Amino acid sequence: MRLKMYRDYFWYIAMLKKKETFIILVDFGIFLATVYAFIGQMKLEFSNSTITFSIGILLVLSIVKFVWDCYKMYSDYASYKGEGKYTTEQTEQILNEKGIYKLADLRPSSDEEGRGFQVHSVPNSTEHMNQKKNPLEYVLYSDDIDHYLRTTEIRLTLHTRKYAQVRKRIKKEGDALLSFLRYNFYRSLNKGQHFYNEQKLCLSTDISLNNNEVECHKGSYFDTYLTNIISMQKLIEAENPERAVFDGRRGYPYSLSAGILKLCSIKDACVNNEIGVSTLAFTKDGYLVLWNQNALAQSSGAMLVPSGSGSADWEDIEGASFTKSIQKGMSRELKEESTLNRLSADDIGETRIVGFFRWVRKAGKPEFVGITKMKVDWLDINPETTEVARISHADNKTITSLEQLSTTLAEIKNSPNISVPLYMNINALERYIARDPAGVIAFLELES
Predict the structure, then answer these.
(1) Continuous segment of H or E residues that includes residue 184
(2) What per-residue confidence (pLDDT) applies to 40?
């Protein structure tokens, strides 16, 4: 685990700081050439001792230069290694030259308002219980968009322009922004958490009514961390909280018009927007599968989470179908967290998209939620203990009717430790039930 984390971290840094990496490689090339020349010279007669001595001096200097460059580059990124030196602080306000605005004041863009998006709070979320103020979470969703996603096959096109914009922004911020990455990398190592730079499917344009095509790009988790995850955080010195090393709000995607704070659309936001995916799974024998997230997880640690939750991998792409790609991502997360990797997606069951929301605290990060009707029983499922833990079977109930389903969802929704993805998954399913009860009954094979 640690080796993979080191590899991902230093490779990401090397690709961002290509100039410094190139200099080190040139130094290494000079060092190798000098070694080769020195060995060749040593094979000659001692009459050429002056040349041998000169090459020896060059060899020593090359070694010193190469070691110094490597040490300097490493020391810059190892300065956050010690525990307790730095910490992060959640913020609730966005600073602007025209004033201070609360996150709760944020509204959808005019375009998104036209598509039915509204801001909603997640009242019972304790996503940030470790923070002193225990702030509420806010999301944007549209009932019209959710219905459109349930009834329309969305096509996928790939482009690199959003990726180029995001990387340009990260490079422009430079070491100040990368300080967050250094901090979380070493914090994760110290705590035994996973912090990998996996290749992700990211959303480049918005989900629009009467447009069955979206644009996506290939990004990485570190890109998401540096542009989405930290957008309402500050990296501060633990012993001097007033001193901010970097303020993530500098990159929060908003506009200000007539004193109204608005979240930029996905198309206009210069953030990575890795696609989040979650699904509620119902077993063949009628159980709803829920997990407690591992306390060491990067997100929603120790909270109640959906049956499968995470983000869409680049490998989840299914041809030119965006809908099938998202469904595949949901099914894969369910398989991984239920230790059912031996089964194919078809053997697991059928998955449908039921909703979409944007996570305000994470710079409007796109999240898709779904439901899965499984072909396996409750006892066939075991939690992947490095990620989740099974909730008590006594706390779980068989669901045979729509009335039972609605009651169960309402009970779970009132849980004090519910995560944002689970809350929104339930929210979308409840609205699906209200709009098309017969469709839900048929898909989940409930009693009519």
Answers:
(1) helix 175-191
(2) 63
Q: Give the Cα-Cα-Cα angle 300, 302, 303 (nearest 5 degrees).
A: 60
Strands (E), 143-239: 155-158, 199-203, 213-220, 233-237
Tokens 């090359």, located at residue: 62
Residues 6+ positions from 395 with CB-CB distance below 8 Å: none
Beta strands in 296-378 (DSSP E): 304-305, 308-311, 349-359, 365-374
In this structure, the strands spanning 276-282 and 365-374 are parallel
Interatomic CA distance for residues 120 and 245, integer angstroms? 32
Cβ(123)–Cβ(136) below 8 Å: yes
How many Å apart are CA 191 and CA 1, to the nearest integer? 13
Q: Which residues contact 4 (CB under 8 A, 6 or more apart)?
A: 196
Average of per-residue pLDDT values in the chain: 85
Q: Helix 161-173 vs helix 2-16: angle between axes, to the nearest 10 degrees?
A: 90
Q: Hey, how many other C-beta atoms are within 10 angstroms of the C-beta on 435?
A: 13
Global pTM reads 0.87
Q: Which two tokens stand for residue 117?
A: 């998006």
- 3-class secondary-structure state, position 150: helix
Mean pLDDT by 10 residues, the chain (448 residues): 86 76 62 63 55 64 67 57 73 85 92 95 60 72 98 97 96 87 88 91 96 97 97 89 87 91 96 98 93 67 85 97 98 91 83 98 98 93 75 67 94 89 97 97 93
Per-residue model confidence as pLDDT tens digits over 193-248: 889 999 999 999 999 998 999 999 999 999 999 999 999 999 998 888 788 889 99
Reading the block at residue 52, the tokens are: 């041998």
Which positions ≥6 away from 115 have C-beta within 8 Å? 142, 144, 145, 206, 208, 209
Cα–Cα nearest to 301, from 127, 420, 184, 138: 127
Residues 6+ apart with CB under 8 A from 298: 188, 193, 194, 195
Query: Hey, what are 239's tokens?
Result: 């012993």
Distances (CA, A) of 86 to 79, 92, 122, 134, 176: 10, 20, 29, 20, 14
